[in-house]
Amino acid sequence: MTRLVFMGTPGFAASVLSGLIDEGCEIAAVYTRPDAPAGRGRGLVASPVKQLAEKYALPVIQPRSLRKPEAQDELRKISPDVIVVAAYGLILPQAVLDIPRLGCVNVHASLLPKHRGAAPISAAILSGDEFTGVSIMRMDAGIDTGAVYSRSMIPVLSWDNTGSLTQSLGIIGSMALLDVLPQLINGTIEAVPQSSEGATYSPMISKEAGRIDWSKSAADIWRQVRAFQPWPGAFTTWEGKLVKLVETFPAPNQPKAAPGTVVARAGEGAAIGVATGDGVLTIRKLQIEGKKPMTGEEFLRGARGFIGAGLG
């Protein structure tokens, strides 16, 4: 049986690992990022991949870097035939790429060469892409520049956000990988080099990227809200408090107020309308600092003076 090492960290990667487990693959070790502080108590929390690996009693290794010789020596001792990588979060140096006889295979959540980099799912939504997908590629020393074994495409729906697309693409990625691996093992598949034409790069997202600029169009802000849900969240401020927008949609009617002004209740359910640089953004669900998410109607019941206010 082919000996496999898996490297991944978030929920997307856990979906891919789950598919390998269900298929009965021989997983010699699971690599994931070190436990990280989370929550109000800032206690250390294991990644979704680590939690899944421990559930199935798979060996877990958590180096802070794969550049150190001792980490590379440990991997050589495991002697994998192939390394599968999915949203791992650490760079694999050439010395690591050279270890498995069948190479290192990456499950990347975009239609390469578009949206290479750390945040391809958010980037697809921000760009207004009608379609996205998963690429299975042979890794090289570049960032998502390796030759591609397969691409699987799905539509980006108007209600999709990064959370929902991550779930869908995790399933698609798992299925695509399980289709490619037997062909790779049997030597019946060829990877096709990527074209540099149309290549884009999606860098890691910072928390500040969620701050809303109300001078942008309602459509742009709507995409921002979806792209940064659930993290870091698209946010604005009101009376010094942070307000996260959870669910919105753009309305074509032109505002008669400065961008960022709450203009009126708009639509069914007493949703909130906010003037933008082009159009009105209707807010169906939001979350004020220290509170649970609520509908626009629920929020307005306890927020007198919100209509007509300026959001920062």
Automatic annotation (TrEMBL):
Keyword Transferase among record annotations: yes
Family annotation (InterPro entries): Fmt, Formyl_trans_C, Formyl_trans_C_sf, Formyl_transf_N, Formyl_transf_N_sf, Formyl_transferase-like_C_sf, GART_AS, Met-tRNA-FMT_C
Catalysed reaction, written as an equation: L-methionyl-tRNA(fMet) + (6R)-10-formyltetrahydrofolate = N-formyl-L-methionyl-tRNA(fMet) + (6S)-5,6,7,8-tetrahydrofolate + H(+)
Span of domain Formyl transferase N-terminal: 3-180
Gene3D superfamilies: Formyl transferase, C-terminal domain, Formyl transferase, N-terminal domain
The enzyme's E.C. designation: 2.1.2.9
Function comment: Attaches a formyl group to the free amino group of methionyl-tRNA(fMet). The formyl group appears to play a dual role in the initiator identity of N-formylmethionyl-tRNA by promoting its recognition by IF2 and preventing the misappropriation of this tRNA by the elongation apparatus.
Top-level class of the enzyme under EC nomenclature: transferase
CDD domains documented for this protein: FMT_core_Met-tRNA-FMT_N, Met_tRNA_FMT_C
Alphabetical list of HAMAP family matching this protein: Formyl_trans (MF_00182)
Protein name: Methionyl-tRNA formyltransferase
Molecular-function GO terms, alphabetical: methionyl-tRNA formyltransferase activity
Keyword Heme attributed: no
This protein's UniProt keywords: Protein biosynthesis, Transferase
